[in-house]
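User:
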Amino acid sequence: MTTKLSKIPTPRCFQCGKEGELEIPTEIWFAGIKKSQEGALIQDAFPTLSSDQREQLLTGIHPECWKKMFA
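Assistant: Predicted structure:
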């Protein structure tokens, strides 16, 4: 069985100015959005995503840019 992925655009990164996107399994994306709308914190709504992925969803900051900012 193949997992369908959704390409989710993320906000523009204020460090590098580039837009980004994440590929997230569609089932996880819709379940997380539902939990978010019910008031869940992002780490509870998307527990299977890495902290880097959750940060990019919220702020748009790419993992590489985060490392440059806080090296």
